Amino acid sequence: MTDDNIIRWAIRIEFDGTEYVGWQRQNNGISVQELIEKAASQLIGGRPVSSITAGRTDAGVHAAGLVVHLDFPADVVLNKRQIRDGMGFYLKPHPVVILDAAPVSLDWSARFSAIWRSYRFTILNRPSRPALHTNRVWHVKRPLNAAAMHEGAQYLLGCHDFSSFRAAACQANSPLRTLDVLNVHRENEFIFIETKARSFLHHQVRNMVGSLALVGTGKWEPRKMKCVLNAKNRAAAGPTSPPEGLCFMDVGYLDDPFLAN
Amino acid sequence: MTDDNIIRWAIRIEFDGTEYVGWQRQNNGISVQELIEKAASQLIGGRPVSSITAGRTDAGVHAAGLVVHLDFPADVVLNKRQIRDGMGFYLKPHPVVILDAAPVSLDWSARFSAIWRSYRFTILNRPSRPALHTNRVWHVKRPLNAAAMHEGAQYLLGCHDFSSFRAAACQANSPLRTLDVLNVHRENEFIFIETKARSFLHHQVRNMVGSLALVGTGKWEPRKMKCVLNAKNRAAAGPTSPPEGLCFMDVGYLDDPFLAN
C-alpha cells in the first residue's frame, strides 16, 4: 500500500503471552502479531492489515498496555468502538484484547514516535509454587533482599553501554541505552521490579533482573552491579530470568493519541 | 479415629478455584477438599486423613489464605516442611498449594476457633473483556461509581438479619450476622470490595456485591441498601454476582497457630 491508500489507527492492547511465541511472527507457533493482524483483517472483510508495535515482546511475556499501529486500506470507515469491540470479538477465545483505539496520522508510529517504555517484572518469593499467579511470576524460593536489589539497581541508571545485559541476538545498532527508572520493592511475598527507558535492548530487562536476583540472595553485593555494567560483557552478568514474570506496562508519546480520544 | 489416635495440623492454602466444584466433596466434579485430603493421605503412605475448613468456598471461588485443619493418625511423625512441600508435590499439577503448616491441639478447630474471615471481590470495570485476569474478576462493562457503592455498603455494617443476602440453600441456624468491614474502592479499571466478619451466610458476599453493582450503575441510590436489608427477603436484593471475582483472603484466630511457628 502507498501512503495515499492507508488510514492508520493506534491501538492499546492487553494480552497473556503464555501460549504465544511472542509479538513477532515466527514459524514455530502463534504470534500476537498474527492474531492482531488477522482480527483487524476479519473486521474489514478479509483485506490485509499490517501492524507495527512499540515493543517486540518475547515468548511468554505479557502486556498490560502495549501500543501498536495498524494500517488499514484508506476506503474503510472505522470508529474506535468498532475496532475495540470488533477486533475483541474476532480475537476470541485468545487472551488478547483491545483496550483503546485512536486514529493517527501517517507520520505517527507506535514504534518510532515512542519516547519511553515501561515494564514490570514480578517475582513470587516464597517456598510454595504459585497457584493463583501461575504463568505471571518468576517463582524464587530462596529469600531475596529487595532493599539490596534496589540499591544494586541504582548503579544501572543513566546512559551506559548495556552490553552486559544484551542478548546475543540483539539487533540494535548500539548497546548504549539510557535507563530512567529501575525500582525494586517488596509487597508481602511479591517483589516488583519497575523499569522505564526510552528503549531497551533485547532481553535487557530479563538480564538485569537475573543479576539483581543474585544481589537479592546475597551472592553479590549491590555494588557488584556497577562492575557487571562496566565489564560490557554478557558473561559478567547473571542468567536471563524467565519470561513469565515480565509485563509490558505502558509506552509514552509526545502526542498521545489516546488522550485526545 | 478417636482423639487418642489423632494428631492435628493447621495448614494455610492458596488455590485457583476455576476448575473445581468448590471446597466440599460433591459427585459432579473435583473438590478442593478431596485434593487436599488425598495429598495428605499420599504423604503418609495412603492412610486416611480428614479435614475441616474455615470456609466452604463455592465453585469458581479462589483462596489466597484459607485455613484448614487435618487429622492424621497419631503415630505419623511430620514437620512443617514435609507437610508444605510434600503435600505441594502430591497436589501437582493442580493449582492448589500449601503456604504454611503448624501443629495444633485437638481442641483447636480451623472452623470453630475462627474469630473472623475476610474476602476480597474484584470487578474489572471496562469495555474490554479480561485477558490477563481471566477467571479472577467479574467483568462489568457499564461504568460503576465505586464511591456510591462504598456509601451503600456502609448501611450493611453491624449486626443484622441478612436474609436478603442469604442463599436459599444456606444451612446456618440463624440469618443474624455481624458485618465488620465492607469497603469498596477503585484502582484504575479495577473495583475491589473488601469485607470482614466473624462468619458469613451462604452466598452472602456474592449477594451483597450483586446489589452493590446496582448502586454502582446508578439504578439504585446508595440508601436503597438499607431498604433491601430491612426487607429480610432475598427477592428484595440484587442478583448473585458470579463466583470468579471472589477470593477467600484470610482468617483470624485468638491463638494463631502460624504466628508461633
Automatic annotation (TrEMBL), chains A, B:
<protein>
    <recommendedName>
        <fullName>tRNA pseudouridine synthase A</fullName>
        <ecNumber>5.4.99.12</ecNumber>
    </recommendedName>
</protein>
<dbReference type="InterPro" id="IPR020097">
    <property type="entry name" value="PsdUridine_synth_TruA_a/b_dom"/>
</dbReference>
<dbReference type="GO" id="GO:0031119">
    <property type="term" value="P:tRNA pseudouridine synthesis"/>
</dbReference>
<comment type="subunit">
    <text>Homodimer.</text>
</comment>
<feature type="binding site">
    <location>
        <position position="119"/>
    </location>
    <ligand>
        <name>substrate</name>
    </ligand>
</feature>
<keyword id="KW-0413">Isomerase</keyword>
<dbReference type="InterPro" id="IPR020103">
    <property type="entry name" value="PsdUridine_synth_cat_dom_sf"/>
</dbReference>
<comment type="similarity">
    <text>Belongs to the tRNA pseudouridine synthase TruA family.</text>
</comment>
<dbReference type="GO" id="GO:0160147">
    <property type="term" value="F:tRNA pseudouridine(38-40) synthase activity"/>
</dbReference>
<dbReference type="Pfam" id="PF01416">
    <property type="entry name" value="PseudoU_synth_1"/>
</dbReference>
<dbReference type="GO" id="GO:0003723">
    <property type="term" value="F:RNA binding"/>
</dbReference>
<feature type="domain" description="Pseudouridine synthase I TruA alpha/beta">
    <location>
        <begin position="153"/>
        <end position="253"/>
    </location>
</feature>
<comment type="function">
    <text>Formation of pseudouridine at positions 38, 39 and 40 in the anticodon stem and loop of transfer RNAs.</text>
</comment>
<feature type="active site" description="Nucleophile">
    <location>
        <position position="58"/>
    </location>
</feature>
<keyword id="KW-0819">tRNA processing</keyword>
<dbReference type="InterPro" id="IPR020094">
    <property type="entry name" value="TruA/RsuA/RluB/E/F_N"/>
</dbReference>
<dbReference type="InterPro" id="IPR001406">
    <property type="entry name" value="PsdUridine_synth_TruA"/>
</dbReference>
<dbReference type="InterPro" id="IPR020095">
    <property type="entry name" value="PsdUridine_synth_TruA_C"/>
</dbReference>
